[in-house]
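User: Okay, second chain of the day. Same drill as before: sequence in, structure tokens out.
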Amino acid sequence: MSDSELRGSASRLHEQLEEIAALLHRHEAGAPVEVVLQQRLQQLHPADMAFILESLPLDERLAIWQRVSPDRDGDILLEVSDAVRESLIADMDQREIMAAVEPLDADELADLVEDLPSEVLPELMASLGAQQRERVQSALSWKDDQLGALMDFEMVTIREDISLETVLRYLRRFDELPTQTDKLFVVNHDNLLTGVLPLHWLLVNPPERMVSAVMAPDVNTFHPADDAYDVAQAFERYDLVTAPVVDERGYLIGRIAVDAMVDVIREESDSEVLSRGGLREEEDIFASVWKSVQNRWAWLAINLMTAFIASRVIGLFEGSIRQLVALAALMPIVAGIGGNSGNQTTTMIVRALALKQITAESARRLWRKELVVALFNGVVWGGVIGCVAWWLYDNWALGLVMMVAMTLNLLLAALCGVGIPVLMTRLGRDPALGSSVLITAMTDSGGFLIFLGLATVFLI
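Assistant: Same drill. Structure tokens below.
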């Protein structure tokens, strides 16, 4: 999809949001628009409905949710964010929840089970057939970030010892194929995966040929214990649409499709953005004040402590600042440039760590490279701001101190920009977690200490 199409899609969603909100407000004002509102809601794709529900304040969200056709509730619950899903389920009674989730597939049920009220679960599990219940329990046995929690059990399998004509007759018996079906999985008598048959190969080969002669025996396979994000990267690397999931013996137990992998990539991206800002979890933008406070307070407390440390560093040099007031005007520049440079480095390193592109040896080379980049930028831009300081305050020594301080702080930013994410990874933590907060703390305190320390030694 092109950039213009993406912008068109975003614009269309915003127009739909404004239209639905306007119809709701007109209805609340007494205008006879209930039928029109119901019709517009029915026409929306579940993903578009999810966007609208996430974009409305809680009272309007629930008013729209109550007008959604019950047979669409389950599909929409799968699309909304976890935080918004919680508010929607809280507005449903047990009968409505059961009606919404019973038609869903096993992998979809597994996505929702943790968000359902505990009193609903026994009735839900009892309502499932033996095979469906087993599949749900299988999906729930894996962690959220493992492939087993995401794999789909709806797939088409064929035997390797039949002709393509037989395969075509078999496929015609289906009312429809499972979504994202781009290949058929080939198994032997024991359900051991032996290869795949892409649908376009089925269509272009003579019908009398055997599956074993046409299939691709070398296939990308995954295991339920695999990390979901690693698998998503493999999907992107090899342009996969679907792939088989096998157990440790090679027996076919499910498949994974590209739509699930796109969700994984989006959630990973969202999580990284939130972690860098010190947010613990995705937040409903219209959540209660208390929930938002709970989500944000931890890293704000850390930031407060680091800001206090930076202020005490400045306090150590109060006498120097009183003697040379220009220091107060110039020191935020040193700290600010260092923080920006450190965040640039951290962003690059966190991305490389997520893509598994950094080894122990390459980390050392990255450190050296980033230090050279910081040294170059420090000399160039430190020299520029040093000349400005010389011109403003008619003090060449102040300009020289400014250049040296900026260079040293950029070197500190490079050290921390590589070191903090790598250290977090070695400690088993998310390398993006609070990285912006930590980098800013280091470059603020370090920048103030370097600049004011140099000024005290050489200018006061």
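Strands lie at 157-159, 183-187, 193-198, 242-246, 252-257.

User: Thanks, on to the next one.
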